[in-house]
Amino acid sequence: MRDIVRVDLAERGYDIVIGPGVIGEAGERVSTLIGRRPVIVVTDDRVAPLHLAALEASLSAAGVRSNGPAIVLPAGEKTKSFGQLEALLDDILGRGIERSTVLVALGGGVIGDLVGFAAAIALRGLDFIQVPTTLLAQVDSSVGGKTGINTRHGKNLVGSFHQPLLVLADTAALSTLPPRHMLAGYAEVVKYGLIDDAGFYQWLEEHGAAVRSGESDALVRAVTVSCAAKATIVGQDERESGRRALLNFGHTFGHALEAAVGYDDRLLHGEAVALGMGMAFDLSARLKLCAPDVPERVRAHLAMIGLPTRLGDVAGVTWDTEELLGHMAKDKKVADGKITFVLARGIGQAFTARDIDGHEVAAVLDEAR
Ligand SMILES: NC(=O)c1ccc[n+]([C@@H]2O[C@H](COP(=O)([O-])OP(=O)(O)OC[C@H]3O[C@@H](n4cnc5c(N)ncnc54)[C@H](O)[C@@H]3O)[C@@H](O)[C@H]2O)c1
Ligand SMILES: O=C(O)C(=O)C[C@@H](O)[C@H](O)[C@H](O)COP(=O)(O)O
Ligand SMILES: [Zn+2]
């Protein structure tokens, strides 16, 4: 028996299949869904030696047709770029594909976001399947249809909403994930507890170490609860006109931090989110929206797990508050020149707010060092 979470979006609805060994079932599940349509698998050069053969063997054993060999891109955040998008489209289109072609994204959030965007625009829309291999991708990026790339102006500023046909989250594939990336994914897991599920947050305070170390039952539960939380929100607000903005908790600060670092390995997305969630609670406490001890309760948990909680924890970066404020002003949630913040009245009680005093935001950035 597998955990299966349904993303309920009428004709764009799909299943997320979760559990150890799901990649071994990929062939049967994909073949049932797409029949004789051809696939092109896209992955990165760290995932390819670890998990590509198993996926290809499963697809081939089930008779899934392939339109040429897998495309292997460089690993890392810098691959979410115009240059890599162009190279990917060039390779796909050079194969003389038809609209029946289905792209299969095997990898973390970088591959999923890039391949999803390529699928959205190639021939004005191909179907795609997500096979997420990082914790972050299994609990967050493979679900919900946000696809895109970074630009020199900021994070994810070019992209589209394009839902996958299916998500196959093989929790056993996380056994090869470096610990730092496991932790980065854990930040997005905690996010679901912090935004609207205090019971899940409390469970994480007790079982977070088991999730982090990859204990199968804890991991499957964390991935399933996270996917169910995201599926519910996406089902209510697919294009982020309201409630979906809660999934951006910690991201207004976090994306600015990533932009300031320049998307290199000094700061991973999940690490930026961990820092940003602490700051979102700091801002909430400064504005007397939540009790003053909540930011430290959250930081204590994130730090116990091993995530950064202060800007000083990020080695080799000098932070400039004015620069960070400039990046925050380019957030996609800016409307009428004002940033929409996701704040919280307590754990599990996030909400969106506007007209926040810029001096308070600057003070939070200054004090988070
Ligand atoms: N679309 C969304 O809703 C959404 C949500 C959250 C994050 N994101 C985006 O996701 C990206 C981050 O994704 P990520 O954290 O998965 O990073 P990533 O894709 O860069 O993967 C992290 C690293 O782990 C390697 N890797 C992947 N799977 C592995 C495995 N099983 N074993 C060993 N190594 C493995 C990768 O090659 C890479 O080096 C960011 O660009 C972020 O903006 C998107
Ligand atoms: O799915 C969403 O909605 C999210 O906000 C999930 C985030 O974790 C993710 O990082 C997302 O890519 C951020 O989106 P953006 O619209 O702020 O770029
Ligand atoms: Zn995120």
TrEMBL record:
| General function of this protein | Catalyzes the conversion of 3-deoxy-D-arabino-heptulosonate 7-phosphate (DAHP) to dehydroquinate (DHQ).
Pathway named in the protein's UniProt entry: Metabolic intermediate biosynthesis; chorismate biosynthesis; chorismate from D-erythrose 4-phosphate and phosphoenolpyruvate: step 2/7
UniProtKB keywords: Amino-acid biosynthesis, Aromatic amino acid biosynthesis, Cobalt, Cytoplasm, Lyase, Metal-binding, NAD, Nucleotide-binding, Zinc
Q: Does the keyword NADP apply?
A: no
Name the major location.
cytoplasm
Which InterPro entries does this entry report, sorted A to Z? Dehydroquinate_synthase (IPR050071), DHQ_synth_AroB (IPR016037), DHQ_synth_fam (IPR030963), DHQS/DOIS_N (IPR030960), DHQS_C (IPR056179)
Q: Where does Zn(2+) bind?
A: E188, H251, H269
Q: Which gene encodes it?
A: aroB
List the molecular function annotations (GO) for this entry. 3-dehydroquinate synthase activity; metal ion binding; nucleotide binding
Specify which residues bind NAD(+) according to the UniProt entry for this protein. G109, V110, I111, G112, D113, T133, T134, K146, K155
Q: Which residues form a coiled coil?
A: none
Protein family: Belongs to the sugar phosphate cyclases superfamily. Dehydroquinate synthase family.
Question: Protein name, please?
Answer: 3-dehydroquinate synthase
> EC number(s) in its UniProt entry?
4.2.3.4
Name the domain of life. Answer: Bacteria
Q: Name one GO cellular component term.
A: cytoplasm
Q: Which GO terms describe its biological process?
A: amino acid biosynthetic process; aromatic amino acid family biosynthetic process; chorismate biosynthetic process
Note the Pfam families from the entry: DHQ_synthase (PF01761), DHQS_C (PF24621)
Does the keyword section mention Cell inner membrane? no
Any idea where this protein resides?
Cytoplasm
Q: Where is the 3-dehydroquinate synthase N-terminal domain?
A: 71-182
Q: Which reaction does it catalyse?
A: 7-phospho-2-dehydro-3-deoxy-D-arabino-heptonate = 3-dehydroquinate + phosphate
For this protein, what does the record note about how its cofactor is bound? Binds 1 divalent metal cation per subunit. Can use either Co(2+) or Zn(2+).
* Stretches assigned to the 3-dehydroquinate synthase C-terminal domain: 185-334
The cross-references to CDD domains, in alphabetical order and at most eight, read: DHQS
User: What cofactor does its activity depend on?
Assistant: Co(2+); Zn(2+); NAD(+)
Which source organism does the UniProt entry give?
Skermanella stibiiresistens SB22
